[in-house]
Amino acid sequence: MMGLWMLLLLHLHLGNAPWIKVLCASLPAPSNVAISSFNMEHKLSFLPGPGTPSNTHFTVEILKQTHLRKSLWRSVTGCSELTAGQTCNLTRAFKYPFSQYRARVQAFTSIQRSNWTVSEQFQPLSDTVLGPPDVSVSGCGNCLLLQLRVPTTRGLQYHQQLRDLYRELVFHVQRTRDGAQFRLIVPYKEEIMITYLQPGVEYCVTFSVTALFNTNSVSSKPHCAFTSPPLHRSSLYVVFSLLGVFCALGFLLIGLIVYGGQLSFKLLRHLPRTLSKREHP
């Protein structure tokens, strides 16, 4: 009986000890846990909870949601000891683009742990934001030639996933001189020609991609090029000078032909008289 009272007194004494309260209290849970994705590269970001100590680290786990009753959380390689301000790259962890995932973050020190904070549901294929392909634009007379390349991603597997997403390209073409513009939608190809343009004129092209199962896309910056090299002022002088010379030569040649024809006609008219005089002296 005496021992029971001693344990009760010891419990009350320890319960009033401030260091025991610190030991028993949990860390503030992380906040603003969110997954962002661009061109099939996925990152998780978060903020430390208010009052989080500076020596706190953070660990990340993901859950692949299935139709099974029990799904297991698993840790993410390289994201087990993050510090405040760091992000967790989930590109390799989200292997299946059609699957649904969640992520969660926990704060911890050597003696404390926080509650988990869970992100919203995320599907790689439909929730990634599609940026425009890399492009080079060159003129081809009365057209523009665009050569497209899929942006570089982490590894061949994800590069191919991104390529398979592309379905159509939406172009906005604007003539720099007067702002005249038109819209063009074409199936995705790595080489596209925009035709029926004015030669020697600058056009600016912006474009975005559309994809199956995904409506999130951003447009490219304007890419500008001349359909054909514009003539310099000195070149125009040369062209007009050559045209003048050719016109003068043309008129001279026409004059010679006309004069030669008239001269030939006069000679033919006098030829019979000359012959008759020689026959009848």
Overview of the molecule:
The protein is of the alpha+beta class and 281 residues long. β10 and β11 form a beta hairpin. The longest helix is centred in the last third of the chain and has 47 residues. It is 29% helix and 31% strand.
H/E element string? HHEEEEEEEHEEHEEEEEH
Q: Kindly report the average pLDDT value.
A: 81
Radius of gyration: 40 Å
Q: What is the spatial order of strands in the main beta sheet? A: 4-3-6-7
Largest sheet: 4 strands, antiparallel
Strand content: 25-35%
- Number of E-state strands: 14
Give me the secondary-structure category.
Answer: alpha+beta
Distance between the termini: 178 Å
Shape: elongated
Helical residue percent? Answer: 25-40%
Please, how many helices? 5
- Which spans have pLDDT < 50 for at least 5 consecutive residues? 1-24
List keywords for this structure.
31% strand, 281 residues, four-stranded antiparallel β-sheet, 14 strands, 5 helices, alpha+beta, elongated, 29% helix
Short recap of the structure:
29% of the residues lie in helices and 31% in strands. It has 281 residues and is an alpha+beta fold.
Task: Give me the secondary-structure topology.
Layout: H1 2-15, H2 18-24, E1 31-38, E2 41-47, E3 57-65, E4 74-75, E5 88-89, E6 100-108, E7 117-118, H3 124-127, E8 134-139, E9 144-149, H4 156-165, E10 166-175, E11 181-187, E12 191-194, E13 202-211, E14 223-226, H5 233-279
Antiparallel strand pairs: 1-2, 2-5, 3-4, 3-6, 6-7, 8-9, 9-12, 10-11, 10-13, 13-14
